[in-house]
Amino acid sequence: MNDDHQSAHPGNGLRESATFDRATIHAIQRAAATGVYDIRGWGAKRKLPHFDDLLLLGASMSRYPLEGYRERCDTDVVLGARNAKHPLRLDIPVTIAGMSFGALSAQAKEALGRGASEAGTSTTTGDGGMTREERGHSKHLVYQYLPSRYGMNPDDLRAADAIEVVLGQGAKPGGGGMLLGQKITERVAGMRTLPVGIDQRSACRHPDWTGPDDLAIKIRELREITDWEKPVYVKVGATRTYYDVKLAVHAGADVVVVDGMQGGTAATQDVFIEHVGIPTLAALPQAVQALQELGVHREVQLIVSGGIRGGADMAKALALGADAVAIGTAALIALGDNHPRYDAQYRELGSAAGFYDDYQDGRDPAGISTQDEELAARLDPVEGGRRIANFLRVMTMEAQTLARACGKAHLHHLEPEDLVALTIESAAMARVPLAGTNWIPGMTGSGL
Amino acid sequence: MEALTGAVPTEVHDLATASVRDLNQALHTPGVAKRAAHWRVLNPRGAHSVACGLNEELTVAVEGHVGYYCAGMNQLAAVTVHGNAGVGVAENMMSGSVRVRGNASQSAGATAHGGLLVIEGDAAARCGISMKGVDIVVGGSVGHMSAFMGQAGRLVVCGDAGDALGDSLYEARIYVRGRVKSLGADCVEKPVRDEHLAELTGLLAAAGMDADPASFRRYGSARRLYHFQADNAY
Questions:
Q1: Does B87 contact A157 at a Cβ distance shorter than 8 Å?
Q2: ipTM score of the complex?
Q3: Domains of chain B
Q4: What is the residue-level pLDDT of chain B in tens, covering all 234 positions?
Q5: B190, β-bridge pairs
Q6: Which chain B residues are closer than 8 Å to A194 by Cβ?
Q7: What CATH number has the domain spanning A65-336+379-430?
Q8: Which residues of B fall within a CB distance of 8 Å from A36?
């Protein structure tokens, strides 16, 4: 848990193995003691090339900036106008990613809806159906269509503002889901048609289609059921992103959602979270390339998620060609997840504020990833909604500040030319030059 | 579309001259059942998504073969396919009934929550996959992985069942009259008691199947996978 081994044993000459560091040693010891692999929440915790490895080039002699917070820098985005009668028109290009009722408390889902609505954006259901709290407090609600089809019904489908066909998520592409028995309360079980208290497995394959040709027919069915009113998203975990995006577009997606491996989960094997998928930074340019080659970049919108933490990440993702970003883990943190005020209780659970990732246990002191009524009651949905709205506003203002500095009157005017990379890896993945050079590894020569 | 005169007014929609979109839009019109409760669909010729998303007490007779997802997410309506049905007939049905006079392709009744699905012929693989409360009666045989992860409802198979029947089953109940090639993970044979004979009798009667309930065997979940542990992490 403590990466700074020097602080643990300062000056005593002890040397920690880079290969068998303390986290690795603990993992081996835990496995030997329990005989069960580790299941946890959150996303990949390993260091990965990310948006921190990119920098924006502000205006200079050859670029003309816009005035601070005064000159107009628009933020609106339209999602799903390709086929839907009623596309989503959002005020800001950051949305709340899919998280299930079951994984999260009803209060948390309501707070996410309240905050998103106040900030003028959408929130998303998850692998557990649509709750009345969520629908009631979400101006724009995206209804996920998942392999499990838990709680799936045509009334909710028609009540949604958009439909997101989920093929996978960044934390576990190719994996299904799990919700351990301690979170399967009577209400959760009822919505999922499962016995109370059992460990519940969510399927990893859709039950009635396989492959992109079938998906095209499935999407048409969803459009027929909803009379072609709703945008249809297709969400993929980032792996073979270039091909997945092309196939999603061919299948008829109005919006493609790409979730990188830093994307969070409520419960997945640690080995899966850390070792499957590719970073968001590597996936995004692949997705944009696929859309551009098909001639539908900006016509089919691209939403990118997985480790989006603030306005800088958002601005850089948009500059690389995304139409919007989505947040999950950051939204939970904004709600109060891992807050220092719960540190003592995190420690009782064997964790600490800033490290807590046991969303699967249902004992979340912050009342977010739990179905325990007493714990869930700690989260006031109104206050939580205010915090979400605040965070979304700050993200947007930060992105606007950066965009204005680059001379952009709309966040979507940001472009790859506004970016450079700090490392060779990030330059290669993001396909922007290494700072101070013209070199894009894999694409250009190595000279200045 | 034309209205036929007679004792029971029936709307006729010919897919040789009009689109599936037109058909479904008409069937989705609020209050459609008051205007025309009975519909005939001609020349489906394998079209997909025929009569999906219905939400009123209609009867729809589809006169020919249909493609994928016929009567998908059906609520309240009674749909009869006078032919064969493609993938996912009556997928996610909530209520009402769907009858296929011929055979059905894979994933028939997938994830369906309620209602009655009758397939007079055979059903291919994954019949009743992830079923969540629907009753399915198959006059012939079903393919492999049928009732996979079935959560609730009843699957009655008058013929044989393919490999891995009821794999990873939750609380769905399965009755098979013929041979079961193999059972899936955590699916076991269970005794047929009086209450099972009674429900089987009712299901067969509802489906119009002439089969002796006493000739069926019952299968269900052993519930050994209900709690995660090292031994069932394959």
A1: no
A2: 0.94
A3: 42-224 (2.160.20.60)
A4: 444 444 567 999 999 999 999 999 999 999 999 999 999 999 999 999 999 999 999 999 999 999 999 999 999 999 999 999 999 999 999 999 999 999 999 999 999 999 999 999 999 999 999 999 999 999 999 999 999 999 999 999 999 999 999 999 999 999 999 999 999 999 999 999 999 999 999 999 999 999 999 999 999 999 998 887 654 443
A5: B218
A6: 151, 170-171
A7: 3.20.20.70
A8: 228-230, 233
